[in-house]
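Reopening this ticket.

The earlier resolution said the output was attached, but the attachment link was broken on my side. Pasting everything inline this time so it's all in one place.
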Amino acid sequence: MGVDTAMKQLFPLAPLVLLAAGSTVPATGAPLPVQSYRAIGNEPFWGLTITDRQMTFDDLNGPAQVVQPTPAPVRGVAGETYQTSRLHVNVVHAQCSDGMSDRVYPDKVQVTADGSRFAGCGGPAVKPVILAVTEWTVTSVNGRPTPSSPGYYVNFTDNHVTAKFGCNRFNTTYNLTSDTLTAGPVAATRMACSDMSFESQASAILARPMRTNFLTNERMILANSAGKIEARRRFLN
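Inline output:
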């Protein structure tokens, strides 16, 4: 049995849920099934399950599991932290690869269990997105929502990308290596518009190599030191 196959059997990922939602009780009085958040790691292999009731950590190289009541999460800008006497869990909402397959997860997870530190990935695996022949509506630039207009988009063919951020149209080649997107020399129209703030910020981002982060198959972030572009996929008819 391969290592990747073994990990799938040992640590099947349950759907990601908002733990803050809690459990509810239907009219029959029977509680709903407890939903869970899963995280895994390798070298050494470990697994973590967080439900609204308890956190369970398993170190496959260790003698026993660590079980603690689930505390209220401390929510920060990057993610959530769970702190108990024996477990400290830090969830960072940033793309994570397990290092052993092509699977990508939405979260990076660091765990300290009885003083030992572990690092891995959490949440449901996100299927890698092939950018070729996809179209995306730009929803925000540097955290500022774009207007509801068809004039904000990033569209990809096999080797070209066209984009618009409210005013001029950009056209260039691109190269995607691993999770880094690099645009070539840009050709653009030269119209002057009343508000070019989105365009000036987005064009500065496109001018440098960008990290691609697929939150889901329908949500993408392009980011570098110049800022970030968030987009939602539009499926072709």
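Reporter confirms the inline version is readable. Helices lie at 3-10, 197-206. Residues 1-34 have pLDDT under 50 and may be disordered.
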